[in-house]
Amino acid sequence: MKVVICQINSKFIQSSLAAWCLKAGAEHFCESKNDVCVVEGTINGSMDSAVEQIVGEKPDLVGFCCYIWNISYVLDLAERVRSACPAVKIVLGGPEVSYNAEKVLLKHNFVDFVLSGEGELPFARLIDGISKQSIPKECGICFMEEGVPCVALPYISCEEPPSPYCAEYFDRLSGRIAY
Asked: Helix and strand tally (H, E) in the chain?
């Protein structure tokens, strides 16, 4: 499965570690073989370019990291990606959606899943579940089922997550500020 993790930062100089944490989690925890890539942009960037970049990867699933500074942009971007690729699965996660998954699912019909809580393991389980056509009803994975929100408790791990610090991350960081 082709998985794109999209991180929209507030400025070009900034780089959030969240997308790279999800990538590390997918690579560490997934049972299935997947091609996982990170696409970064900014809220000041061209929406059309962002859609082209994501759609150009030919994804089966696109995960978006949602924060207070990017939520409007991300929702618009996710809807446009879904419009361009009707079969793609759209996943939202992060502090701006994690606490209100039910509301997000009810309000935005282009969103297939919301991750609640820590994302590394739930994202990997979701990828595996989509591959097997059997979505886990646990582990912070929230979705609509027959028109009704299926909302799981936020996932909290007691274990150390896999390290996001890889050569690709440092190459892409290239002088920007990590947060």
From this structure: 7, 9
* Rounded to 5°, angle at Cα 175 from 123 and 48: 60
- Asked if 6 contacts 89 with a C-beta cutoff of 8 angstroms, the reply is no
Q: Note whether 102 and 151 are within 8 A (CB).
A: yes
Can you tell me the distance from the alpha carbon of 134 to that of 175, in angstroms, rounded to the nearest whole number?
41
Exposure string of 81-92, with b = 16+ CB inside 10 Å and e = fewer, is bbeebeebbbbb
**Tens-digit pLDDT profile for the chain (179 aa)?**
999 999 998 867 677 889 999 999 999 999 999 999 999 999 999 999 999 999 999 999 999 999 999 999 999 999 999 999 999 999 999 999 999 999 999 999 999 999 999 999 999 999 999 999 999 888 899 999 999 999 999 999 989 999 998 888 888 888 777 77
Q: For residue 117, which of 155, 143, 148, 173 has the smallest C-alpha distance?
A: 155
User: CA angle 161-166-168, nearest 5°?
Assistant: 135
**In angstroms, what CA-CA distances link 31 with 21, 62, 80, 125, 126?**
17, 18, 30, 8, 11
Single pTM value for the model: 0.94
